[in-house]
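Continuing the batch. This is chain 6 of the set; chains 1 through 5 are on the previous pages. Same settings as before, nothing changed between runs. Recording input and output for traceability.
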Amino acid sequence: MSSLDYETIVSADLTPLKTAASAWTDMGNKFETLHKDYGDHVKAAVGDEFPGPERQTGLTMFAFKTRAQRTHEEYEAARNEAWAVGKLLDEAHSTLTMLRRAVLDVRDQAIEAGMHVSASGKCTLAETDDDAADTDVLDVARRMAREGAWDQAILNAVQNVRDADHNLKLALSQRPFDMTGVDDGFYAWTPRDAGEAAALHALPLIEKLESDDELAPEERAELARIFRSNDDDPEFSRIVLNHLGVDRTLELSNKISEFSHLGDDAAKKNEYRSLHQSLSDAMATATTIDEEDTAADKQFTDKWLADLREWGDAKYEINLLPGASDPEYVRGYQTLATLMEQGSGYDKEFLHQLADDIRAAEDPGKGGSPDIWDLNAGPDWFARDPLDTTLGVMSQDPDAATEYLDPEGGNDNLKYLLENRDWKFDNEHRIDGNSQSTLKDTDLPDSRVGLGQILEAAATGELPLGEDGGPLRFGATHTEAQARVMQEMIELLDPKGPDGFPDSFEYPENIRRPVANALADYAGDTFEILGRVDDTYQSSNEAFPTTEGWHISPEADSLIRVIRGASDDPGAYAVIHEAQRQELRDGMDRLPDLHPDNLETQDTMRKAYRGLGALEVIREDIVIDQRDNDISEANWNAKVAYHVAGGLVTPFPGGDAAQRGIDTLTSVLASEYSADASAEANAKIAKQYMETERSVTLEIGDWAERRGLDRDSSATNVLQGNAQNYIDEARTATQKALGNGNV
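Output for chain 6:
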């Protein structure tokens, strides 16, 4: 392993590498000239063929011809070796220059952050006149945390240089290969690329891992370092994967999974998890199609996917549970999805085709079997549902997610996932080492996690926020494809029955929060739709453009039912509620006149409080259903308060919009809520926060005061009364949409 330290790296002069690379390349060019001249003028003098009727004959001539052939080959080998060394040295110069620059950049960033960086790369918080810095200097724990973070950042950059230096050393010392010329002469084959040399060094370790129980600690470290140094090198990745092939790659992934999760040695398990991630990253790199060598990229990826279709539904043995007496059986696509989940950076074309292939294996409409994955449930770290896991991986590329779900052109992927797919698994689940039980037609605990992630990413064009949420985007804009996905999603999620009324709002748990996050991203549209007064939104019922981007316009009743379905999750309800209230605040702050007769004032108030009225009815409907299910109303309300006041919903970051969000109502909730209080106490606070009567009084009062007006003036009172009327209008329409009290 390279012993390079920070001081050596920052002071290094890498120019000699470039000079040496040029010298070796020039040498290769000269050997090329000799090779050509010798072939044209010496070797050609006696012909290329063995002695014949018209050629000089005899043992002397035969010996000369043999010697001439070897000499010609030796010039060629010398040329190849010199060119290869020159290319490796040139790669060493460019790679180390880039990584050395990265070390210097981190150092400069640390200095800008108030650190003094010593000659050895150690960071110390510098004393300044700044109060915040002085506070950290005096606070030992905070100072050590800041210094440690920058120490680690510099160490990581230094380690990247060490890894690359060691990788290039391996390439330059790789045993060449030669079967031409003279014994112990020049080498006809020498690696021209560090990735190629690294792959040849890694393959014996991989083969040992395949055949032995495990690698020795130093072998694990070396293999991890090789993968880490070449994780973005297609040459390295493709040599490794071509050597293994799909079948052996899947077998290797299963073996690494076993070492990663079974046993008591935590350090060893972490090392194998790192190897698993490296193998995944290598597959992502190998299957990426870019603009540099598109034809070669596509050729490899198409071949890899074709081989996956052969092995994807094959059964593999794997030990998933500690203490089990017999191995489990899994499908190839399940192993592949488990492997992919460990890494990142997968290409859009690869993900789309893989998802299509997995669907083809399970979709009866495409000749597949919905029971294909019904083997053993196994632990939750294993991708029991390979399509759902693939969707989760795809969500990390929002553009790929949008394209995959966009219903344009008859694409039915979204409809298949939300309406037609069989998400239930009939699995034989091993309770412990011996006993078993069969779970019939059940959703897995992590069912639809990937679906929720891709729904959010595809509709918003952003990475999924996850359960911890925010910050959500204020005034988000969307493309045509994103709006189409959102529009179609609402239509498909609408639980309206044949009679027009919903039978149930039992949305799968793992899509509730992602759907709410997506709806919050379209808060400007949902604000208008729930207001039920805008002709464009009421008449379109499809995605439509404006100068500000594309918008959705589902029927208001459909939108209400979808919000209701997501809101069984109190965090989801909190997200939607806060997004609507932020739109309300923004609309009110843009009002030019307080007077209740002002048409713009009336229009904004009507839309704002009709929307909040709809949300209040949705909350009441949830409370009724929870009573029926013996679920505590207080518990649900308290969780809403937790998500708002506890900071898990941070609606909109930065600027004036965020400042407008600090109104009296929110401040009251934040000040009264306590994480240490009882659920009942926090529930009471949350209920008061969400009740529209209090909301109307405080929000309109705040708005008036921001304009220097009296909270209790006649104009303010009239607006508050009108707002309550708008809420009452919304209550009736929302009750009808939810199927309550219909005749």
